Amino acid sequence: AQELKAYQDGLAEFERKGTQVLGISVNKPEANRSFATKLGLTFPLLCDTEKKVSRQYGVLSFLRVAKRTTFVIDTLGIIRHIDRGSEAMDTASAQLACSLIGPTQAEKLS
Asked: What is the pLDDT of residues 4-20, one digit of tens each?
């Protein structure tokens, strides 16, 4: 919860960098809706109830819950930065990674 609140608090800065914040949880949609409302989240909180995304990104623990992880993914779908565990609770490195990526060559041409 703490990291999601931190991302909500820093949402304006991410948006200024032209990035989008998404949360992904292995919980059911009803639980995610309630959780998002309780925390006042305005960014999407997606459901991975079948744990496919968590497994593909290597964050599913042996207890079958997703480990706290932040991925910065560029517009081409390339992972450019990863924060794990307690590092994922601080938005500073993800924000820095977002500003270092800059627009892709395709975006420059459009």
From this structure: 999 999 999 888 888 88
**Contact predicate 39/52, CB 8 Å:** no
* Residue 61: Cβ within 10 Å count: 9
Angle at 84 between CA 104 and CA 26, to 5 degrees: 90
Across-strand partners of 72? 81
Residue 82's beta-bridge partner residues?
71
**Cβ-based neighbours of 107, under 8 Å, separated by 6 or more:** 75
Q: Which residue has the tokens 């590092």?
A: 87
pTM: 0.77
